[in-house]
Amino acid sequence: MSHPLEPFLPEITSSETVCEVKGRKIQVDQLKLPSGEEYEYVTFVSNDLAVMVLAQTESGKFVVNEEYRHPVGEILYSLPGGCVDGGELPKHAAKRELYEETGYSASEFIYLGQVHPMPGNNGQKTYYYLAKDAQKTKDPSPELCEIIETKEQTLDEIKDRLLKSKNIDGHFTSALCFKMLRGL
Questions:
Q1: Fewer CB within 10 Å, N side or C side of the chain?
Q2: Which tens digit of pLDDT belongs to each residue from 169-184?
């Protein structure tokens, strides 16, 4: 069965990569709309898959990063996460990212859900996981450009920060929403 919007979808008449640096590229697609009009659509193409980890300690606190994010020029309240490497399962990437960025390991990783966080300009899909009984087992080993301070915080501290809407990575709210909707 077809979708009722299918007759309104554009035809891609050409596609060009205008810039490529370190596996990321800017792609320009020339679209022909059903009306006959043409439209140039610019897309940022990066890794197809990413993960974010909402880690909770045995005492109920959450593992939270405060991380410098260059595109916004600010330190954001965020979660451990990153790209899924080629051939890697999202769950394994979640374990790896939590360990690398924070030095925490967890006894259980529960799939929470997935979203396309920026479908207007990027096709990336992000998987969210809840890491249960997280505990610090080593010093973090972030990538060269990752400037991160990891903290353990209570749900009340997180709610306070979210309600103030102060420097928050949007993935944080998605992960909490999935956790709440799943009753975990």
A1: N
A2: 989 999 999 999 999 9
Yes or no: say if 77 and 169 are a contact pair by the CB < 8 Å rule.
yes
Residue 53's contacts (CB-CB under 8 Å, 6 or more residues apart) are 63, 79, 80, 81, 94, 97, 98, 109, 128, 129, 130, 131, 175
Look up residue 113 and give its amino acid. G
Q: For the whole model, what pTM was predicted?
A: 0.88
Burial 61-93 (b: 16+ CB within 10 A, else e): bbbbbebeeeeeeeebbbbbbbbbeeeeebeeb
* CA–CA separation, 165 and 89 (whole Å): 33
- Using CB atoms within 10 Å of the CB of residue 129, give its burial: 0 to 12 exposed, 13 to 18 middle, 19+ buried: buried
Q: Distance between CA 175 and CA 8 in Å, rounded?
A: 33
Distance separating alpha carbons of residues 175 and 63, to the nearest angstrom: 13
